[in-house]
Amino acid sequence: MEVVEQKRYKNIKSILFIILILNWLVALAKILYGIYTQCISMTADGFHSLTDGASNIIGLIGITIASKPKDKEHPYGHKKYETLASLSIAALLAVVCFNLIKGSILRFLNPAVPKADIKSFIIITGTMLINFLVMKYEYKKGEDLKSDILISDSLHTKSDIFTSLSVLVTLIAIKLGFPVLDPIATIIISLFIAGAAYEIIKGGSDILCDTAPIDEKKIKNIVLNITGVKTCHKIRTRGRPDDIHLDLHVQINPDTQMDKAHEISNSIESTIKTNIKEITDVVVHMEPVEKYK
């Protein structure tokens, strides 16, 4: 099991490193040409892409810590550090959102006419295509590997696609003689970024606040089909999508011998883990059925 987990973390690190390089190349192209043409929406989009790279670095740090094995101080492991890292990405997005709105207000107060030429359109459409491919790839890998970091980072990249689309519309508007749409588009960009931050915060807080990841009816249906179980209650689940912990109370006949009760408990644990792969730990509390009659 430990070998499988280490392989999973290694795959996540490789994906993050590849995407980091792509994000930096995309960001550099947008920022340099945005500054050259005085198009703040393109420059803003470039800095947003730069934060994509920063989020990759945060992800790499988070995954490195999360991949550490269980120890005396962390009997449940370090996996929630991956969730904490994803919340750091959300905080980074919030800072970017604030700076973009600030820059838009300043542009309204100090108007300037940015340039919009064929190179601008080529850069923005080319980088948008790269971001789209990166987002689809990263999100799929995030679901396959049950990784908070990859899914959060793909949402970050998804917001970058929307911002690039806004910049594309802005470039068209500038070409048609409406440069005022440049700061307006930048504000729209900031709203997309805020939306991505909210999605990441919601997902991360659900994990850290122990929101139940599995419907207890699903657990109950599995347990009640096991021989010797009369009923079950007090079903509780918590944890990350790839590391769910479950505890439940199971009622059996009061005259059941200890070794038989232990056999039923083992059967419950193995059956649950077989049917729900995401569950990694099961604690069964055995009780005599008369207790609640």
Outline of the structure:
This protein has helices spanning 2-37, 40-66, 80-109, 118-145, 148-175, 181-208, 216-223, 258-275, and strands spanning 231-240, 243-252, 279-288. By secondary structure, it is mostly helical.
Notes on the protein architecture:
- The protein is mainly alpha-helical.
- It has helices spanning 2-37, 40-66, 80-109, 118-145, 148-175, 181-208, 216-223, 258-275; strands at 231-240, 243-252, 279-288.
- Strand 1 (231-240) and strand 2 (243-252) form a beta hairpin.
- Helix 2 (40-66) packs antiparallel against helix 5 and helix 3 runs antiparallel to helix 6 (181-208).
H/E element order: HHHHHHHEEHE
Strand content: 5-15%
Largest sheet: 3 strands, mixed
Number of separate helices: 8
Mean pLDDT: 81
C-alpha-based Rg, rounded: 25 Å
Task: Name its key features.
3-stranded mixed β-sheet; elongated; 8 helices; single chain; 293 residues; mainly alpha
List the helices and strands and how they pair.
Blueprint: H1 2-37, H2 40-66, H3 80-109, H4 118-145, H5 148-175, H6 181-208, H7 216-223, E1 231-240, E2 243-252, H8 258-275, E3 279-288
Parallel strand pairs: 2-3
Antiparallel strand pairs: 1-2
